[in-house]
Structure of C4-type zinc ribbon domain-containing protein:
Amino acid sequence: MATKTEVTVEEKLRALYDLQLIDSRIDEIRNVRGELPLEVEDLEDEVAGMNTRLEKLNTDLEVIEDLIKEKKNSIEEANALMKKYAAQQDHVRNNREYNSLSKEIEYQELEIQLAEKNIKEYRAQIEQKNQVIEETKARFNERSEHLKHKQDELDEILKETEKEEQTLIKESEKFEATIEPRLVKAYKRIRTNVKNGLAVVAVERGASGGSFFTIPPQVQMEIAGRKKIITDEHSGRILVDPDLAKEEREKMDELFGKLK
């Protein structure tokens, strides 16, 4: 004879089906969000990446501007040296000294030419980098705007569903606690392995819910008897009879209505 502390198979089936209904409702809420959280995350990474690129490009510009300043200083120094050498040529004592100073002047002229060539190249680099910066800024602004739109969309969905989801998660944990760990473990394993996360389903038109495989009449009678836990031999899902499912759905619909 069963004691008051013992839980009947029917009670276990009801608790499992209630847990399934709660978890399915959580799944529905998360499906509403769909890929939006991941999309927002990807956009955040993309925008952050472009921002880093802009920072690097601007740093590169500063480096190039410093190089141009260095080359301009080199030109000024070379011009000063040329004037100095030219003045010294007026006071040389022989041709050897004159020629030596001429070579120094030629060398400084070459240094100026090289520096001017470098400056021209650096300015071409600046022009190219400025073009890339403008393109990146335009892309950055466009993706930032898109991110804001998607973030607002996600925030709105979260605002509508987060409270209900958190309450349902607590309800799911509460229902789990009323079911023996062995069954919870089996339920979670089945839920992970089957389509739509449905681990507990009702018999519908003589077949397992969501399945085309017919359940023999004898097995259907055993399911309706609620004396033992029976699984679908094809999908592994735990099966409950339609009447039990209807009763629990009505009960849980009332609970979901209060949670909204």
